[in-house]
């Protein structure tokens, strides 16, 4: 019996007001992609933090060799401040 191999269909993304796309489960793809290189991205979603703490954490991740462009860093900051920060 021969099995046909099919390519996976691309998942359509939804866009937030600040332009970051959401993946299949409503999680920002940029956070999933960048933050999960060293730890589970779920750590980001566990608790809301003050914006200053997110800035400190992002700075620490860059020191630990997180590779982000200026645009990606700006988008990550926007996502964290809008969705995962204490208000």
Walk me through this protein's architecture.
The chain is built from four helices and two strands. The termini are far apart. It has one domain: Cytochrome Bc1 Complex, Chain D, domain 2, CATH 1.10.760. The chain has a two-stranded antiparallel sheet. The radius of gyration is 16 Å and the shape is globular. 44% of the residues lie in helices and 5% in strands. With 87 residues, it is mainly alpha-helical.
Q: Order of strands across the widest beta sheet?
A: 1-2
Give the integer mean of the pLDDT values. 78
Q: Quickly give the CATH architecture.
A: Orthogonal Bundle
Distance between the termini: 59 Å
Question: Could you provide a short overview of the structure?
Answer:
The chain is mainly alpha-helical and 87 residues long.
What topology does this entry show?
Blueprint: E1 14-15, E2 21-22, H1 29-35, H2 42-45, H3 51-63, H4 70-83
Antiparallel strand pairs: 1-2
Helix pairs in contact: 3-4
Any descriptors?
87 residues; mainly alpha; Cytochrome Bc1 Complex, Chain D, domain 2; two-stranded antiparallel ribbon; 44% helix; globular
């Amino acid at each position: 019996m021969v099995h046909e191999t099919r390519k996976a269909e691309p998942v359509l993304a939804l866009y937030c007001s600040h332009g970051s796309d959401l993946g299949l489960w409503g999680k920002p793809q940029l956070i999933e992609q960048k933050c999960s290189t060293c730890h589970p991205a779920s750590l980001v979603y566990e608790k809301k933090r003050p914006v200053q703490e997110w800035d400190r954490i992002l700075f620490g991740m860059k020191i630990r060799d997180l590779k982000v462009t200026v645009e990606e860093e700006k988008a990550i900051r926007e996502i964290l401040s809008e969705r995962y920060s204490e208000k």
